[in-house]
Amino acid sequence: MTPTHRTARRPGARSRGLVRPPRTGPRRFLLAAVAAGLLLAGAAAAQTPADSALTVFWTAPGDDGSTGTAATYDLRYRTTPVAGTDTLSWWTAATRVAGLPSPHIAGSIDSVRVRGLTPVTTYYFILRTSDEVPNVSGYSNIGSLTTSGDVTPPGGITDLAVTATTGTSLTLRWTAPGNDGTTGTAASYDIRYSILPITAANWSLATPAPGEPAPAVAGTVQTYILAGLGGSATYYVAMKAVDGSGNVSVLSNVVSGTTLDVIPPAAVRDLAVRR
Predict the structure, then answer these.
(1) CB-hemisphere CA count at 13 Å for 81?
(2) I need a surface site. Which of 28, 170, 202, 243 has the fewest CB within 10 A?
(3) Model pTM?
(4) Average pLDDT, the chain
(5) Which among 187, 196, 204, 201 is positioned nearest to 237, based on CA atoms?
(6) Which residues have C-beta within 8 Å of that of residue 267, sequence separation ≥ 6?
(7) Mean per-residue pLDDT for 225-237?
(8) Phi and psi at residue 90, in whole multiples of 5°?
(9) Contact present, 191 and 226 (Cβ < 8 Å)
């Protein structure tokens, strides 16, 4: 996929914040952004908050106008567009992209994959090129695109129940939610317990349970034994499901169970016999 070049406007003309480069520097070029996976065959389609990505590509300018090979690129991005024609303020506040390729000979297609972006967010990119002096080109056109990404959390668990108790444990049962709502398979569970009723407000203060099972496919009944508890005590338990993108379900229903009394009376140590 080759981007189409735009003809530079006459000096003094304004066009969406684009600046015409000097005649002696690298020529201007068209910048485009495409979702990762569309430009490169076989690229992964799934994206996560930690790795929502866009591929930015452009036609390489020259070292002197449209001939030769330039020295370096400077690509920057923001989540806000240029305000009017004030490209300089936008550029100064923008985030610089690391790991840019070295420019290829004029007319080649150069590109970079920008990772670590926020899902379902529109990003705006501008590129400048320098030669070895360095003479610096004007600003490119603005390339923009909205990232994809999974923002649908697993469904909330509504049937958590305590099905058995011992002196040191509670057996829990629930129906597995999905990865996206009620479909698919979630990535992990977060089960917590407390001697106080659990709410969304005090969830972070509850004790995480060890060794939770891996989620099964949505609709599967699962069980877990919460062990290591004290006897004759009431515990409150709740849980959340997490998907592979880090989306977290709402808090489940909260259940409680009382462990059994397994402490016998103390042995009598002053037993005596009389006539």
Answers:
(1) 13
(2) 202
(3) 0.55
(4) 83
(5) 196
(6) none
(7) 96
(8) -60, -45
(9) yes
- pLDDT value of position 30: 59
Which structural domains are found in the chain, ordered by start?
31-146 (2.60.40.10), 161-258 (2.60.40.10)
pLDDT digits (tens, 9 = 90+) for 88-135: 999 999 999 999 999 999 999 999 989 888 888 899 999 999 999 999
Q: Which of 158, 151, 120, 160 is nearest to 248 (CA)?
A: 151
Contacts of residue 40, defined as CB under 8 A and 6 or more positions apart, other chains included, come to 55
Can you tell me the distance from the alpha carbon of 117 to that of 101, in angstroms, rounded to the nearest whole number? Answer: 19
- pLDDT, one tens digit per residue, over 9-65 is 333 333 333 333 333 444 444 565 543 322 322 233 333 444 578 899 999 998 988
CA distances from 136 to 25, 72, 73 (A): 6, 9, 9
Structure tokens at 159: 């049937």
**Is residue 17 within 8 Å of 90, Cβ to Cβ?**
yes
